[in-house]
Specification:
Radius of gyration: 19 Å
Oligomer: single chain
Bound molecules: ligand LCEJXURD, manganese (II) ion
Strand order of the largest sheet: 1-2-3-4-5-6-7-8
EC number: 4.1.3.39
GO biological process, one term: L-leucine biosynthetic process
Enzyme class: lyase
Strand content: 5-15%
Shape: globular
Pfam families: DmpG_comm, HMGL-like
Number of domains: 2
Number of strands: 8
CATH class of the largest domain: Alpha Beta
Family: Belongs to the 4-hydroxy-2-oxovalerate aldolase family.
Number of helices: 14
Length: about 350
């Protein structure tokens, strides 16, 4: 166990991971309201981007209502203390996109790759460092590899310029000790040079518990989202993280009442659907499916008349990763064909 009283930093991803749950329909007014409330509560980093990061607005991933750079600029304008972060998936977002976000005032670059492909992030970390941005690496679908391999990937990111690397439980599939051992492996490999972070999803309702274990094993950056607004069953709720860490005596710098007010008074009123561990989302945690596939699977289910949870189960068995959203349609068509043959 590491020093349990050392301060941790909460990064709120309501306005980025929550974009998946909102089908990327955030308005500038909503962004301003959320940033204002989080900033007032003392949250140090607020992530604002399309759910799939800069450049994510597309036919494959879903079009944004508003341009990312415009929303980043609004967030920067609204924040008095908080830093504004952007997410970038190399290949989807480009160095040009990063420069535009930086020009709009974003100061933290979070570069995300599949957990075995850290090497594709190097150019983007170099560019972010040249721009003077803080750098964070995101190893997505971290349950797909063991702790040692994950630590090797984190090492690649740190050597490339990442100042923190996250274990990203994109599928909400890590069960307690599995999160703990991955955090410990990263802390051992990079802890003397960089921080380690944890990004949890609630598909098996373990986001907060895994975050506590992550902190107790040396993670110093933890992600959350107000009202859990995020892909799948949502993220670890920021307001619950803040209250839990305060009860544990771990400083976050965030005011509990401020976080509760931000969730209840600002986010809840504009939600059409609260993230929830329903059959589809639980299947994602159980079968290890990328959380942002949920709405894609629900749309395919409706279109082809097959259950979303069956699509997600097959997607998990096939091992598809972020970027393979089109395969969800393929799986739905196969299930529909099997159904037609059977009848
Ligand atoms: C692009 C993904 O939504 C990033 C993320 O939040 C995750 O993998 O989880
Ligand atoms: Mn996520």
């Amino acid at each position: 166990m590491s020093d349990v009283t050392e301060k941790i930093r909460i990064t709120d991803s309501t306005l980025r991971d929550g974009s998946h749950a909102m089908a990327h329909r955030f308005t500038e007014e909503q962004v301003r309201g959320v940033v204002h409330a989080l900033d007032a509560a003392g949250v140090e980093v607020i992530e604002v981007t399309h759910g799939d990061g800069l450049g994510g607005s597309s036919f494959n991933y879903g079009f944004s209502l508003e341009d990312d750079v415009k929303l980043v600029a609004a967030a920067v304008d609204e924040a008095t203390r908080a830093k504004i972060a952007v997410l970038l998936l190399p290949g989807l977002g480009t160095v040009h996109d990063l420069k535009m976000a930086h020009d709009a005032g974003a100061s933290v670059a979070r570069v995300a790759t599949h957990c075995t492909e850290a090497d594709v992030s190097l150019q983007h970390f170099a560019a972010a460092r040249d721009l003077g941005m803080e750098t964070v690496g995101f190893l997505m679908l971290s349950h797909r590899v063991g702790p040692e391999e994950l630590a090797r990937q984190a090492r690649i990111m740190v050597d490339g310029g990442a100042q923190c690397v996250y274990v990203v439980d994109s599928a909400g599939a890590l069960v307690l000790g599995e999160a703990q051992e991955r955090i410990s492996a990263l802390v051992k490999e990079i802890g003397h040079e960089a921080q380690v972070g944890f990004h949890g999803h609630q598909n098996l309702s373990l986001g907060v518990a895994n975050s506590v274990l992550a902190q107790q094993n040396g993670a110093r950056q933890i992600d959350g989202a107000l009202c859990a607004l995020g892909a799948g069953a949502g993220n670890s709720p920021t307001e619950v993280l803040v209250a839990t860490f305060e009860r544990l005596g771990v400083p976050t710098g965030v005011d509990v009442q401020g976080a509760l007010a931000a969730a209840d008074d600002v986010v809840k009123p504009f939600l059409h659907r609260l993230p929830f561990a329903d059959r589809g989302a639980i299947t994602q945690g159980y079968a290890g499916v990328y959380s942002s596939f949920l709405l894609h699977a629900e749309r395919a289910a409706e279109r082809y008349g097959v259950p979303a949870h069956e699509i997600l189960q097959k997607v998990g068995e096939a091992g598809y990763v972020g970027g393979q959203e089109d395969m969800i349609i393929d799986v739905a068509l196969q299930l529909a064909a099997e159904r037609d043959r059977a009848s």
